[in-house]
Structures are given as structure tokens and as C-alpha cells.
Design brief:
Layout: E1 16-18, H1 21-38, E2 44-49, H2 53-63, E3 68-78, E4 81-89, E5 102-110, H3 114-124, E6 129-137, E7 147-151, E8 155-157
Parallel strand pairs: 1-8, 2-3, 2-5, 5-6, 6-7
Antiparallel strand pairs: 3-4
GO molecular function, one term: glycosyltransferase activity
Keywords: Glycosyltransferase, Transferase
Pfam family, one: Pribosyltran
């Protein structure tokens, strides 16, 4: 089986964290409980696309929030292969809609932390308060997310990126 997250000519590490769909559902509920227990009551959920789209959707449902948006950022190009810096891609986030709101920024993983730091900086300029949540955080991340489901140094296989794209 070809794995989508491996670039051409790359192999995935054998010792890696594998998240299943069922465990993802449990993780989203646990993170939602953590957010509620903290007293933070977000008005808006912002996904870091693409990896944060599904976690953000699951959290928005678990928290009962309908106000959702996404900021598109490209950084990783393969297993441990990335651009020099994260790049914001169109379509762009409507930052005017964030004024006076409490925002929960959601991503799948804080690996280097550079993407999450960029999105947090962009969002924080426009909203009342921004907090971050990730499924996984790596020990070498430059940011410490406010809410983390698991910490690992391993490469992570997510259920939404475990298979190659569907082609003709």
C-alpha cells in the first residue's frame, strides 16, 4: 500500500504513531472536555488547513459552535520535508470577522510549531483572545499549544492522510 504522506522516493518510519478514526473521535471529545474545563469559551473555531480541518470540525461539534473558518497554510511537502517557512495560501481568512471574539485555533500536530505560531500570530492581531489546540505536540515544537491530546516524538499517521489521493 502506498501511503499519501510519503513523498516520492521516501519511506515512512516503521516506528510511528498511528491514529485511527475511532481514536480520533475519542481524542476530539477529550480535547473538548479540556477546553470546557479550562473556562475558555471560544466563539469561533479556526482550522489550520489542511491537517486541522477534521479536528476543527470535530471540536466545533463537540463544543456546540457553528462559527468555523480556516486559514490555509502550506509547510510540509513529505515526511520530514518542508518549505523554508510556512506559506499562507488563498482563499484567505476573513480576519475582520474575528474582532472582539475568542478564537480556538485547531491543528493536527505542532511538529516544528512554525505553522501554529504563524496562524496564532495572524489571528491574535484581530481577536480578543486566541488559544491553540492540537491532537499531537512534538517535544521540539517552538510553541506550546494550550490544549494537547498526546505528546510524541514519532512521525504520526493520521486516518485522513494514510491513503493516497483517489485518481482516475
Amino acid at each position: 500500500m502506498t501511503i499519501a504522506e510519503a513523498a516520492v522516493g521516501q519511506d515512512l518510519p516503521e516506528d510511528r504513531e498511528i491514529l485511527t478514526w475511532d481514536t480520533f473521535g475519542e481524542a476530539a471529545r477529550e480535547l473538548a472536555r479540556e477546553v470546557v474545563a479550562s473556562g475558555f469559551a471560544p466563539d469561533v473555531v479556526i482550522a489550520v488547513a489542511r491537517g486541522g480541518l477534521l479536528p476543527a470540525g470535530a471540536l466545533s461539534y463537540a463544543l456546540g459552535l457553528k462559527a468555523c473558518d480556516a486559514l490555509n497554510v502550506e509547510f510540509y511537502t513529505g515526511v520530514d520535508a518542508r518549505l523554508a517557512a510556512p506559506q499562507v495560501l488563498p482563499p484567505f481568512l476573513d480576519t475582520d470577522a474575528l474582532v472582539g471574539r475568542r478564537v480556538l485555533v485547531v491543528d493536527d500536530v505542532a511538529d516544528t510549531g512554525e505553522t501554529l505560531a504563524l496562524v496564532q500570530k495572524i489571528v491574535a492581531k484581530h481577536c480578543e483572545e486566541a488559544r491553540t489546540v492540537v491532537l499531537y505536540a512534538k517535544p521540539h515544537s517552538i510553541v506550546s499549544p494550550d490544549f494537547v491530546w498526546r505528546r510524541t516524538a514519532k512521525w504520526i499517521t493520521f486516518p485522513w492522510s494514510a491513503l493516497p489521493p483517489v485518481t482516475a
